[in-house]
Amino acid sequence: MKRDIGAFWALLAVMIGFYFPVISMMIHDGLFEAAAGDIGGSSSSQLVILTTVRIATLSAILATLVGLFDAVLLAGTRGPARVLIAGMLLATFLIPPAALASAVQGVIGSSTLRATIRDELGAVCMLAFRWAPVACAMLLGAAVLWPVQQERALRGLSPRVALFVRARCLVPQALRCVGLLILLLICASEIPSYAGVETISQRVYARLTVGNAAEGWQLALGMLVAVAPVLLFLVWKLPLSGRSQGGGTVTGLPRLRGADLLLVIRSTPVLALVLILAITAWPRASEMAVAGSEFVDGVVGIFQELPRAFIASSIAVICGWRLADGGHRWGLLLLCLPTVLPGSLGALALLHVVRPTLPLILDDLPILLTLAQTCKLGAVGAAAGLVASRVIPLSESNSSRLLAPVTGRWRVRFPRALPVLLPAVVIGVALVMGEVEATLLMAPAGHPSPALELHQLLHFRNDEQAARIALLLALVGSMLAAIVVAPLRRKDK
Amino acid sequence: MGRLRVLGVLFLLLIGCGGEDTRTVTIYCSHDRAHSQKILDLFERDTGIEVKAVFDTEATKTVGLAQRVRSEKARPRCDVHWSNEPLHAVRLAADGFYDVLPLGAGEGIPAVWRDPDRLWCGFAGRVRVLALAPETAAIDSPPRQLSDLAMERWRGRVAIADPRFGTTASHMAIVRSRIGPDRYRQLLESLRANDVQMVSSNSSSRDRVLSGEAWIGLTDTDDIEVVRRRGSSLGEEFLRGDGVLLLPNVIAIIKGAPHPEEARELAQWLLKKEVEESLAASSSRQVPLRREVPVPPTGLAISELDPVEVDWKDAASQLPLAIREAERILLDHR
What we know:
The complex is a heterodimer of chains A (493) and B (334). With 493 residues, chain A is mainly alpha-helical. Chain A has a single domain, classed as Orthogonal Bundle (MetI-like fold), CATH 1.10.3720.10. In chain A, 76% of the residues lie in helices and 0% in strands. Chain A has helices at 2-7, 9-28, 43-76, 82-94, 97-108, 115-144, 148-156, 159-169, 171-185, 190-194, 200-209, 213-236, 257-281, 288-325, 329-340, 343-353, 367-376, 378-390, 394-400, 405-433, 437-442, 450-459, 463-485. The longest helix of chain A has 38 residues, at 288-325. Chain B is of the alpha/beta class and 334 residues long. Chain B folds into two domains: 25-125 and 246-303, Periplasmic binding protein-like II (D-Maltodextrin-Binding Protein, domain 2, 3-Layer(aba) Sandwich), CATH 3.40.190; 128-245 and 314-331, Periplasmic binding protein-like II (D-Maltodextrin-Binding Protein, domain 2), CATH 3.40.190.10. Chain B has 13 helices and ten strands. In chain B, strands 1, 2, 3, 4, 5, 6, 7, 8, 9 and 10 form a ten-stranded mixed sheet that branches. In chain B, strand 1, helix 2 (33-47) and strand 2 form a beta-alpha-beta unit. In chain B, helix 6 (166-179) crosses helix 13 (312-331). The interface between A and B is large, with 46 and 58 residues.
């Protein structure tokens, strides 16, 4: 009991920022007056749920397959410019979805993506293209954390066989990766809307704004029911414990020309995207002064927003780790749930229920926005926490539990979990920087938002400045990732 | 002790942040930022009142900020609402979110563009229009009314924005109000049968025409003008067969606004002739509602357009049903 109460603080943010306001709004909007059979809405709404789940699942599977391919090649071979290639692959995730979709459609939309192919298949391909680096990072992390003996044994096999064995060893982690990506992609609305596909986020938003709000809540609950198995799989099926960090060096890894060639082929579309953005971003001589001042404004906006994004992401990840470390599965489940629901839903509830109770002085600070975005990152925090709490060898973990609880947790196990938690924070930062739904509803007047700025620029076909901001975000994200991941890199000794 | 000192300093800083020497006003503006920001900067320069503005995105145009106004009912932080179309404003007025505009605000703007109880006032609008792809049959013999978009020759060649948001939602509600529910549903059915492309926003509709994926895109005049000024050669056709539909911007003051005095000043200032003139000359090519306001040669004058008269209250009351039917027919059966 005492142990459960001690972990409650980790759920405080999500309780105040999601459950309390959302349940209050559900009651206010008359959800519970509707019949239980209405959960999920009408048959047409159920079709939207089905489409959303289908797109999220297919995208998650495709992204994980691509990520697995990248991770196996990067972890299992050595070769030139691997860090550069890994950094470049990350670019598709760091470029905000609106800029990515606009650039992709600008190039191939008019000739290739026709009718039905343009719609669902286009959405799946673009989502997988964007999220594959996240799958790659997760699986690369899992590969780096293999026990030393296992890694040595792999290096003793013939190079090609070793690659297949590595892929097979990563399958359990790949399944968890699919689960996490489904949760994160279920609310994706920007890329599908560019491809002309309606997802559940837009439908819920339309219901909550002009229409019957209770129907919006029914749809949201329907969505929860649809993804419940994934949630339970992620939280209950814990990864194996007792791993140790032993990947260490690249010595002994094979050098395969085929692997180099495959990585070059894999990098080609990413390189093409970056080049298209770079060419678009390059100002004409006559526009140099205007472009320069716009660029400076963009830089200032991004760096103003960065610390807040870092705080939101860190809170979510630390809460997730604390709950996972204590083995609080129900707590993790509660932390994950807000990720599955549209960001506008939680934001509207916060504005209705919590904001009027806060002092007036806090209105000009983006506290509620940060809280809403923290809640939205719950699944990232939970997944990072689950993995991080299992990478410490069991003997070490048990020894630390003999110390005073606070000392064992924060002085021993938390520093050992940082190699997993820090990359998760970077993923969270990238998600917050591109977030639109809650920002639109909650950002204080004058608050800089690179994501909203991008939307405005793309609306006016100011593609040049949009490309500059997108590239800058990718660059800042890469630098952040490099700073965070540098201590984890393999080193030749 | 050290920690207490740090906490004390932080508390003092927080308190210090609250002091406001300068006069400020907060505006929620769904008109495009590139145009409205310049106007708000002029207001700051003229009056010395600092303007804090919140803008919205194209995809959830108007609805996002209208919903934000609703969500903040218990304690508004917005002073002035600048909506880029009238129907959501009419609904907010009916639901008691707006205060009365100052006497004399929007003088010269005809009564048809104002609320009889002075809860909102329209100014400078844009016209619903068809964007036409150059060098296609759409330029040679363009459709003249919405029902023409259901003709076989345009099958799969027409793009329409998400009918639940922005001016497309208003357009749908006004059509339903004018032709009645049965004919409205028939119109939607015929559009669906003709494989119209549903896209996220008016600018996406225009972009489909620009990229050649569609020949005709239902959009607003300002969306066409901004790309024309960047070198694109899109054609345009007003739906004169249905009557030209002009959707004005709307200004309203929020009831219980935190800065009521400044809100009145800003509302009055925005409804001046000079603001309409400036919007008419900008790349948003707005149509001044006052006939006497000069319009540049490339601009649009209300006297030439002769827009249809709309019963705003009836159209606003039709909005939820119009959206629901459009969603059911156009979006659910794709």
